[in-house]
């Protein structure tokens, strides 16, 4: 079948795209009616090549974050984040009520039971009974279970406030601690901090998000409850994590920060959300908020040094109890020298004669 050849010219490109001013002529073969190949219409060709200075083709920016995004990841690494201390809304508390936390044995219970002081059906422990009779509940949200800063904070609380003291207040109060790691580490954390209060785990972090707590790695200003150097604290956290073996990666998110929530008769009456990794409420402010009066107990630090002193003092006492002759015999003959050895022999000989005469 015969084909009809025709010549046509494409539209002239803009001056910015023209070479040396010469226009290219392209030969286009018009297909026949029975040709299955797609046809090309010169009129359908764009008048301006894409991505030219005069082109209207939209160009997406590369790696540009959304300005309208308000997800928690946008707050990572931004330093001392700006958060409010507003109490959670009714909708937020309703959502938090149903979220589960886990105890050291892996048993779950709704968060609503904790801040309402409702004892779980399977909880027959002393903590469960104390929680039931306390209409006011202070819930402390910590960071990951290896955080040395939060561990110092719990040691401060444990040494200055007892459950009996809280229950004896005009409004009986109880404390609960919640971390963002796995429940496998709760026993280790309780032993490390000497915490007498119940500890739970929220490994999903959903409770933190619903209650408005955020994420950051900024240290912030050093608070009073931290008495050790940041380098020492960091090294202790690393060593502590390594000692747990397979649980080293179960401590929780390093970027998650917590806060303190005070509930009374099932309603949230006071909130403090952390703005950095060392922003827990100072103990003095917390005692005033709870209605505790009087001086707080002095926190004992560096228990290992006290143990060394105790052992050393006991050894000194044992030395004082030893008779003088025993101490002389324990001395090295080499250290006495020749003259010293002769004198020691003379003293022993004289003592032997005295004993014979007395006999």
TrEMBL record:
Residues 1-10 have a biased composition (Polar residues). Pfam families: AhpC-TSA_2. Residues 311-323, 339-359 have a biased composition (Basic and acidic residues). Residues 1-77, 303-359 are annotated as: Disordered. This is Thioredoxin-like protein AAED1. It comes from Periconia digitata.
């Amino acid at each position: 079948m015969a084909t009809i050849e025709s010549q046509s010219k494409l539209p002239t490109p803009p001056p910015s795209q023209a070479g040396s001013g010469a226009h290219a002529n392209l030969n286009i073969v018009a297909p026949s009616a029975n040709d299955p190949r797609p046809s090309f219409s010169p009129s359908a060709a764009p008048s301006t090549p894409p991505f030219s200075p005069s082109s209207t083709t939209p160009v997406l920016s590369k790696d540009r974050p959304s300005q309208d995004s308000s997800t928690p990841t946008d707050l990572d690494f931004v330093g001392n984040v700006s958060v409010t201390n507003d109490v959670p809304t009714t909708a937020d508390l309703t959502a938090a009520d149903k979220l589960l936390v886990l105890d050291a044995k892996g048993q779950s219970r709704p968060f609503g039971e904790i801040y309402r002081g409702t004892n779980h059906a399977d909880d027959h422990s002393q903590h469960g009974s104390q929680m039931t009779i306390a209409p006011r509940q202070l819930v402390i949200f910590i960071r990951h279970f290896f955080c040395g800063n939060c561990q110092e904070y719990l040691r401060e609380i444990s040494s200055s406030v007892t459950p009996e003291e809280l229950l004896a207040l005009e409004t009986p109060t109880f404390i609960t601690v919640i971390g963002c790691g796995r429940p496998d580490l709760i026993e280790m954390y309780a032993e490390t901090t000497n915490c007498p209060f119940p500890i739970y785990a929220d490994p999903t972090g959903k409770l933190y998000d619903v209650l408005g707590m955020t994420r950051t790695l900024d240290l912030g200003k050093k608070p009073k409850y931290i008495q050790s150097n940041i380098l020492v604290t960091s090294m202790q956290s690393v060593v502590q994590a390594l000692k747990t073996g397979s649980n080293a990666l179960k401590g929780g998110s390093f970027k998650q920060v917590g806060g303190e929530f005070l509930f009374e008769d099932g309603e949230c009456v006071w909130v403090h959300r952390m703005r950095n990794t060392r922003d827990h409420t100072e103990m003095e402010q917390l005692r005033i908020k709870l209605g505790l009066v009087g001086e707080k107990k002095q926190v004992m630090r560096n228990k290992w040094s006290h143990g060394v002193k105790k052992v050393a003092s006991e050894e000194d006492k044992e030395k004082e109890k030893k008779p003088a002759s025993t101490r002389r015999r324990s001395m090295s003959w080499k250290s006495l020298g020749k003259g010293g050895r002769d004198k020691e022999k003379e003293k022993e000989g004289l003592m032997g004669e005295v004993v014979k005469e007395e006999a």
